[in-house]
C-alpha cells in the first residue's frame, strides 16, 4: 500500500485566493509582475515560506515597507479565513476520510504554517486523518528543498517510489519527483491555469480534483 502526501492550499482547501489576491494588489501597487520572471525563479519565490515571502516583498518589491508591516498586511486576512471561512474543494473531505478508513498513512506537505492549517482542518473534520505535518514552522525548510522531501520520506518510512503526492503547484511536483516521489497534479483554475500544461507533462498523472482519483489509480503509480 502506498503512503500519501497532500498539499493543502489549492488541493484540499479552496484557498489560493486569500494568498494570491492580496499579493497581486501589493505587486500591482509597485508595478511588479511575478509572471514576468523566468519560470524557475517564479517557482523559487512561490516556494518561499510565509515569513520569507514577506521578507522578499519588503526587500525587492515594497521597499518602503518593513518585513513586519508586510506580515501584518497578510496576517489580518489569513487568521480569520483559515479559522472561519475557507471551504474544502469538491469531494475532498469524504475522499480523505475514505483513504484513511482504507488504511493509508497520510501526511501534509504545505508552504503554509501549521498554525493556520490546524484550525481549518479541524473545522472541516479531517485534521485527525493526517499522521504528520511538514510545514515551514515545523521543518524549518522550504518546500522546494530536497531536504524537505527527505523529511517526509523518512517520516513515512517508505521508499520514495511508494509515496504519492497530490499537489497543484509545478515547483512542488518537480521538487518531489526529484526525490523519487510519485506525483498527481491537481487542477486549481484560475490559479494554476498558466502552469497547467507543464504540470500535466511533469506529473505522473493529473486530475481535475483529488476525489476523481481512484485507489486503483493510486496503487498503479
Describe the protein in words.
The structure is a single chain. The chain has eleven helices and eight strands. It has about 220 residues and is of the alpha/beta class. The protein has two domains: about 5-15 and about 85-220, HAD superfamily/HAD-like (Rossmann fold); about 15-85. Helix 3 (about 50-60) runs antiparallel to helix 4 (about 65-85) and helix 4 packs parallel to helix 6 (about 115-125).
Beta-strand content estimate:
5-15%
Query: What is the makeup of the main sheet?
Result: 6 strands, parallel
Q: Which superfamily, in CATH terms, is the homologous superfamily of the largest domain?
A: HAD superfamily/HAD-like
CATH class assignment of the largest domain: Alpha Beta
H/E element sequence: EEHHHHEHEHEHHEHEHEH
What features would you highlight for this structure?
221 residues; alpha/beta; Rossmann fold; 6-stranded parallel sheet; two-stranded antiparallel ribbon; HAD-SF_hydro_IA
Topology:
Blueprint: E1 3-6, E2 13-14, H1 16-29, H2 39-46, H3 50-60, H4 67-85, E3 87-88, H5 92-101, E4 106-109, H6 114-123, E5 132-134, H7 136-139, H8 146-156, E6 163-167, H9 170-178, E7 182-186, H10 196-202, E8 205-207, H11 215-220
Parallel strand pairs: 1-4, 1-6, 4-5, 6-7, 7-8
Antiparallel strand pairs: 2-3
How would you sum up this structure in a few lines?
Helix content is 49%, strand content 13%.
Amino acid at each position: 500500500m502506498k503512503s500519501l502526501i497532500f498539499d493543502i492550499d489549492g488541493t484540499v482547501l479552496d484557498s489560493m485566493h486569500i494568498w494570491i489576491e492580496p499579493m497581486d494588489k501589493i505587486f500591482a501597487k509597485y508595478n511588479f509582475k511575478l509572471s514576468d520572471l523566468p519560470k524557475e525563479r517564479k517557482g523559487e519565490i512561490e516556494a518561499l515560506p510565509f515569513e520569507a515571502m514577506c521578507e522578499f516583498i519588503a526587500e525587492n518589491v515594497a521597499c518602503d515597507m518593513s518585513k513586519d508591516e508586510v506580515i501584518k498586511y497578510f496576517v489580518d486576512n489569513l487568521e480569520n479565513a483559515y479559522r472561519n471561512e475557507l471551504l474544502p474543494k469538491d469531494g475532498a473531505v469524504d475522499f480523505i476520510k475514505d483513504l484513511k478508513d482504507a488504511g493509508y498513512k497520510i501526511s501534509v506537505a504545505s508552504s503554509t504554517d501549521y498554525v493556520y492549517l490546524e484550525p481549518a482542518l479541524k473545522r472541516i473534520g479531517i485534521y485527525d486523518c493526517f499522521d504528520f505535518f511538514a510545514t515551514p514552522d515545523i521543518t524549518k525548510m522550504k518546500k522546494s528543498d530536497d531536504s524537505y522531501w527527505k523529511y517526509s520520506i523518512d517520516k513515512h518510512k517508505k521508499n520514495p517510489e511508494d509515496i504519492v503526492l497530490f499537489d497543484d503547484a509545478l515547483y512542488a511536483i518537480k521538487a518531489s519527483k526529484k526525490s523519487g516521489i510519485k506525483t498527481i497534479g491537481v487542477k486549481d483554475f484560475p490559479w494554476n491555469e498558466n502552469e497547467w500544461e507543464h504540470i500535466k507533462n511533469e506529473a505522473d498523472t493529473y486530475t481535475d480534483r483529488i476525489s476523481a482519483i481512484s485507489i486503483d489509480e493510486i496503487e498503479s503509480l
